[in-house]
Amino acid sequence: MSRGTSLLYHLCRLSLGALFLYAGAVKADDVVAFARNVANYEILPYSWNYVVAATLPYVEVVAGLLLIANRKVRPAALVLGVLTAVFMLALASVDLRGLDIDCGCFDPRGEGHTSARAALLRDFGIMALVVLTYMIRGRMPDPRR
Q1: Long-range CB contact pairs, 50-56, < 8 A, 24+
Q2: Contact yes or no for 53/119 (Cβ under 8 A)
């Protein structure tokens, strides 16, 4: 593997890991506010909003830590890719229904406002990081051999 590809891999992996570690930690800090944000999407039954808000941040934190530690990179990237795809579908749904809500991705308290369309564009960039990390890691030699 070329030095440039290796550098790209580590930049993508570390950026993605730090991003989701931060996002998960911020959401875990105020689960009630995050549950309110989840409810604003008007997709899940009411009782599920808190379940999602109470578990999702920890999935993001664990996956982010795995990426930063360079362990189980492909499974962590796959989990984050699936989560990002679900976020993108939810954001597209919000945009199509004309709801004016804050995505709640990085600020569950709502102190800043990120529209669904802006968050969706950001998620395309995140998905690019996921795909690059997953694909490059798959081409790297297995260190156990």
Answers
A1: 53/27, 56/24, 56/27, 56/83
A2: no
pLDDT at res. 112: 64
The pTM is what? 0.88
- What is the C-alpha separation between 135 and 141, in angstroms, rounded? 12
Is the pLDDT score of 121 beyond 80? Answer: yes
Rounded CA gap, 37 and 42, in Å?
A: 10
CA pseudo-torsion sign 63, 64, 65, 68: positive
Residue with tokens 């995505």, as numbered in its chain: 103
Radius of gyration of the CA atoms of the chain, in A = 16
pLDDT score, position 142 = 61
The residues spanned by each domain of the chain are: 3-139
Q: Classify 98 as helix, strand or coil.
A: coil
Can you count the helices (H) and strands (E) in the chain? Answer: 5, 0
145 pLDDT tier (thresholds 50, 70, 90): very low
In Å, what is the CA distance from 22 to each residue of 35, 71, 110, 142? 17, 18, 16, 29
